[in-house]
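Q: Entry one of two.
A:
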Amino acid sequence: MSQRSRAAVVALPVAALLASMASIQIGAALAQRMFPLVGAQGATALRVSLAAAILLAIHRPSPKALGPAQLKAILPYGLSLGAMNLLFYMSLKTIPLGVAVAAEFTGPLLVAALSHRGRLDILWLALAAGGLAALAPWTQGSGSLDPIGLLLALAAGGFWALYILFGQKAGKVGHGAATAWGMLAAACVVVPFGVAHAGAALLTPSLLPIALTVAVLSSALPYSLEMAALTRLPKATFSTLMSLEPAIAAVAGGLLLGQHLTVRQDVAIACIIAASVGTTAALVSTKGEAAPLPG
C-alpha cells in the first residue's frame, strides 16, 4: 500500500469522527431555535422521540427478544439517556454550548479515571477540577455563568456516567437493538416533561422539519459515522479525538449562536479537554478500552 493510500485509510475515519461530533453540536445549536416555542423540555421531547422512531426504523429490533433480563438491562440505560438529554438541553437555556459540553464531559472523565486508578489520574482529575473551578460563577460580571445552568450540565454529566455503566450491560442485548430500545425508553422519560411544559405547541407543523433535522443530526447520522470510525481507528486515537468535542461545541456555539466565550472559559475548556485526553489515553494503553460515548 502506498503512503498516499495509507494516509487516506487513516484520514477517512478521522474525518467521519470529526463530522460526527460536528453533527451532534450543530444539532444541539439548532435545537435551541425551538426553545422560544416549546422550551428546552419540548425540544428534548421532540428530538428524542423522533430519534427513537428513526433508530427503530433502521435497526428493526424484535420485541420478542425482550425478556425480563433484557428489559432489566435496557430500562436503566434508557432512563439515564433520557435524563442526560433533558438536563443538558435545559442547561443550554442559560449557559453557552461549549461550556455545557465541557461540564457534561466530567461524567465520562470520572468513569474513565475510576476505571484506571493510576497515579496520573489524580493529576488529570485535579486539572479537570481546576477547569470547573474556572467556570464556576464566583463573582457576578460579564463573563459570569448562570449557576443553575452549570449545575444542570454537571448533573447531565452524572447521568452520562450512568449511561456508560448501564450501556455496557445493555450492549449485550445487541448494539443496534440496545440503542433503539434505549432511545425509546428515553423518549418515555422526556416526553411527559415536554407535554407538561409545551402542551399542544409540540404539534405545531412548522416545528417538524427542524425537530426532524435535529433528531437526524444528533442521533442517526453521528451514530453511523461513529461506528464507521470506531471500526477503522485504534481505540486510543478514537478516544483522544472524542475528547475534542467541547472545543467543537464552542466553535459551533460561536458560529451558529453568536456565543463568544471569555479567555477564562476557553482556558477552562482546554483544561477539561486535556484531562479527558490524558485519562482516556491512559485507560486505553492499560486496558485497551475506552468509555463509550452517546451517539
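Q: Entry two of two.
A:
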Amino acid sequence: MFESLANNINQALKGLTGKNKITEINVAATIKEIRKALVEADVNYKVAKDVTDKIKEEALGRKIFINVNPGEMLTKITADELAKLMGGTAESLILTGNPAIILMSGLQGSGKTTFSGKLAAHLKRQNKKPLLVACDVYRPAAIEQLKVLAEQVGVDVYTEIDNKNPLEIAKNALAKAKENHNQVLIIDTAGRLAIDEQMMTEIALLKQNLNPSEILFVVDAMTGQDAVNTAKAFNEKLDFTGVVLTKLDGDARGGAALSIRNVVDKPIKFIGTGETMDAIDVFYPDRMASRILNMGDVLSLVERAQRAFDSEESKKVAANIRKNQFDFNDFLVQIDQMKKMGSIKDIIGMIPGVSKFIKNQEIDENAFVPLKAIIHSMTMKERQNPDIIDGRRRKRIADGSGTTVTEVNNLLKQFNDMKKMMKKMNSQSGGKKWF
C-alpha cells in the first residue's frame, strides 16, 4: 500500500539527514522532491502544491529544539499535513433511522458488491443486524454474488429474481427489514463501465424515495486520478456522504486517497485491503499518513489482530504454551488466524521502522501454504507428538504434501526451536503470564 509514494517521500526527507538546522535552501530542495513524489503517485498537481506549500511554511516557522533534528521535525510536519489533507480525523458511519439505510454507489468493477458484504460483516461484529439488498438487476452474477457473500458472513439477504425494478425491490426490502427487525439496510446498486444518465437517474430515485442516512461511493484506488474524477462526477449528481477506497492492497500509487477528500470535500470512511470479508478498515487519516512515512500503524495492527483471532482458540493455545504442550494443531490455528489479518507485507508495514527494511524485498504471500500442507499430511498422533516422526514418517509426509523431506525437516527443526524458546520463557516467568 503506497509503497512507491512512501519510498519517494522518505528518500526526499533523507536530504535533511546530518543537517543541524532548517534553512530556506535545504527545505526548498526537500519540498520540491516531496511534491514530485506526490505528483508521481497521481495526486492532483494543485493539491500536491498546496500541501507542500503548507509543509514549507510550517517548517520555516518552527523553532528546532536541541534534541530534535531537522529531518525528524520535517517528517512530523509532513505527517500532520498529509493527515489534514486526508480529512484529519476518522468519521463514523451515520446510522439514523429504523432501519438505517446505506446506499452503495460506484462504477462496475470498483468492488461495490464485495464491499457490501464486508460492510455487513463489519456491522455484524458491532452487534447490528444488517440486511443486504440486491438491486443490481443488470449484471447477471450480481445477485448470486451477493447471496454467496451473505451466506459467507452469516447475514440476511433480500433478492427478487424476476423483478427488474430496483426501487420496488428496495421498498419491499425495507418492509421486510422492519418485519424482521433488521437495524441496517445495505443496498447494492447497479454499476456501469462508465457514468451514464440512466445509471444516475436510477440511483437518484433510490435516494429520493428511501432517504438513506449514508450514500457511500465505492472507488477502485488502483484507478488513480481517474478515481478522483469519477468521484467528482458522482458527487455532483448524488451528493454522497462518504467514500470507500477498495483494492488498497494492490499496486495502488496512493493519489486517490490523498486527493479525493480535497476535491469532493467528503470523508473517506473505509478502505478495502484484500479479498476476504475481514479485509475492511475504518479510514484513519493520521494512521495512513504514518504508514506513508514508514512510521508504522500499531493501532490498526492491534485492531486487526483482535478481529482475526478467535478468543476461545487463542485461550486454548495460550494454555498449551504455558503447560509446554504447544503442538502442530496449535501451530495450525495460529497460521489460520494470521492469514485472516491480511497480506503479510501489509501487516509488516504496520510495524514501526520495519517497512523500510522490506521495501525492496519480495514477500511470498503463499509462504504458509507448504507449511499447512505438511501439517495436514501428518496423522493426529504425529501432530500431537512430533518426536515420533522418524525418517519413514518424514518421507510419507513429504510425499503426501507435495514437498521434500528437506522441507519437512526444516519445519520440524523450526518447530522444535520455537518450543524450546517457549519453554525457556515459561521457566523464566515462574509460571506467570508473559503474553
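A: Comment on entry two: The chain has a mean pLDDT of 80. The first strand starts at residue 100 and ends at 105.
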